[in-house]
């Protein structure tokens, strides 16, 4: 292009170490980060009302979980970059992000790290079971009852940021909305998003929700066995996509099977428990206090084996702890509390680190379905 210029005026070729700031290889990562900002903007109307003590609590928990999970996510990006440079036999100082992103699938690499041993899967399985099971049912159920728009956005945000972050943001939106009320923006009284019509309180789950949740839980069961095979990525993508489908507003709710939401919650909790049993059997040679103590010690050690593992591990910790907080708050808002109910909540909270939040959360949400809506205090 500059051949017509005198040689003295022609631009010099770039040095060998030079790399443009942006290349096509950067587009997936740029799109990933942009999607996070877009989703936060889309979900902000659900959090735009005046804060209450409960909503402020959940927002603080969301910030805490974001800080913990993404501190280690950034460390994972850094470690992935260095390891890619080592594979290319190039110093990390001259290795480029273009070469890194061209030869690396961060999604597959991160998931591969958190599934490659039974000890790591002990952590990851908890989050998968919770997300594919009770949490998806909870999003679909409560977003309809309380007219919270874009439930799919909370799920997608959880998938690309952290489930614990999206979970706490939804808890905050849930606490700001009353059953049957549309979340709207204050200026000019305009509703920024048209939510789906609120179903009757006793309406059951749709066939679509039941099918997607059960199918997604089945992919969780197959995940470890697909590691290092071509079906690994396909299995993960199916797991994630199935959880978005029942939350889309454009898909009408069809008449579902003759089961209640409480029964669906219990079914997901039972499946999650069945998934946990083989994991424990592979880690515990026999049932004894010494083996249980060793497992607990190994779980903490495994948490810090790799930045990707630490990130998803803390996602499990924050999702579990946040749900226990929400469970306690919800029980505390009941007008007719019993000592037996208090013991049940304490028991579920203590069982959560052992059986996983999918099991304890599913049981509590099923129990909560039996509560008379008129006996819950309104802020």
What does this structure look like?
- The chain is globular.
- It has helices spanning 27-43, 53-87, 97-103, 106-115, 118-145, 151-160, 163-176, 207-226, 231-244, 261-283, 289-303, 307-332, 339-355, 357-369.
- It is mostly helical and 379 residues long.
- It contains 14 helices and no strands.
- The model is unreliable at 181-198 and 373-379 (pLDDT under 50).
Say how many strands there are. Answer: 0
Distance between the termini: 69 Å
Return Rg in Å.
24 Å
Kindly state the percentage of residues in helix.
Answer: 55-70%
User: What share of the residues does DSSP label as strand, in percent?
Assistant: under 5%
Low-confidence stretches: 181-198, 373-379
How does the overall form come out from the CA principal axes? globular
What is the ordering of alpha helices and beta strands? HHHHHHHHHHHHHH
Indicate the mean pLDDT.
86
Helix/sheet category: mainly alpha
Number of helices: 14
Largest sheet: none
Outline the secondary-structure elements:
Elements (H helix, E strand, L loop, with lengths): L26 H17 L9 H35 L9 H7 L2 H10 L2 H28 L5 H10 L2 H14 L30 H20 L4 H14 L16 H23 L5 H15 L3 H26 L6 H17 L1 H13 L10
Helix pairs in contact: 1-6, 2-3, 2-7, 2-12, 5-6, 5-7, 5-8, 5-10, 5-11, 5-12, 5-14, 6-7, 7-12, 8-9, 8-10, 10-14, 12-13, 13-14
């Amino acid at each position: 292009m500059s051949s017509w210029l005198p040689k003295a005026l022609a631009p010099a070729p770039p040095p060998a170490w030079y790399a443009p700031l942006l290349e096509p290889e950067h587009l997936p990562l740029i799109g990933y980060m942009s999607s996070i900002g877009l989703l936060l903007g889309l979900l902000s109307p659900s959090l735009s009302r005046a804060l209450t003590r409960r909503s402020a609590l959940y927002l603080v928990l969301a910030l805490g979980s974001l800080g913990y999970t993404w501190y280690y996510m950034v460390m994972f990006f850094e470690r992935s970059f260095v390891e890619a440079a080592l594979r290319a036999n190039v110093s990390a100082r001259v290795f480029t992000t273009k070469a890194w992103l061209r030869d690396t699938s961060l999604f597959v690499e991160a998931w591969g790290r958190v599934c490659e041993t039974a000890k790591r899967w002990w952590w990851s399985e908890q989050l998968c079971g919770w997300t594919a099971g009770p949490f998806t049912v909870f999003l679909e159920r409560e977003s309809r009852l309380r007219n919270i728009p874009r439930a799919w956005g909370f799920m997608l945000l959880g998938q690309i940021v952290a489930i614990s972050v999206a979970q706490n943001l939804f808890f905050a939106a849930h606490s700001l909305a009353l059953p049957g009320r549309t979340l709207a923006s204050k200026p000019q009284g305009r509703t920024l998003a048209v939510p789906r019509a609120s179903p009757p309180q006793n309406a059951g789950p749709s066939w679509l929700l039941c099918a997607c949740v059960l199918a997604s839980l089945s992919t969780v069961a197959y995940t470890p066995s697909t590691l290092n095979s071509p079906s690994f990525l396909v299995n993960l993508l199916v797991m994630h996509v199935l959880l978005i489908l029942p939350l889309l507003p454009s898909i009408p709710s069809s008449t579902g099977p003759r089961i209640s939401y409480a029964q669906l919650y219990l079914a997901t909790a039972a499946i999650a428990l069945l998934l946990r049993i083989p994991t424990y059997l592979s880690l515990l040679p026999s049932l004894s206090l010494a083996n249980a103590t060793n497992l607990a010690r190994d779980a903490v050690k495994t948490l810090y084996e790799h930045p990707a593992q630490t990130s998803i591990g803390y996602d499990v910790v924050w999702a579990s702890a946040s749900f226990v907080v929400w469970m306690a708050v919800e029980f505390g808002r009941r007008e007719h509390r019993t000592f037996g109910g208090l013991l049940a909540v304490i028991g579920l909270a203590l069982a959560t680190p052992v059986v996983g939040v999918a099991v304890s959360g599913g049981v509590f949400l099923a129990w909560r379905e039996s509560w008379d809506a008129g006996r819950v205090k309104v802020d």
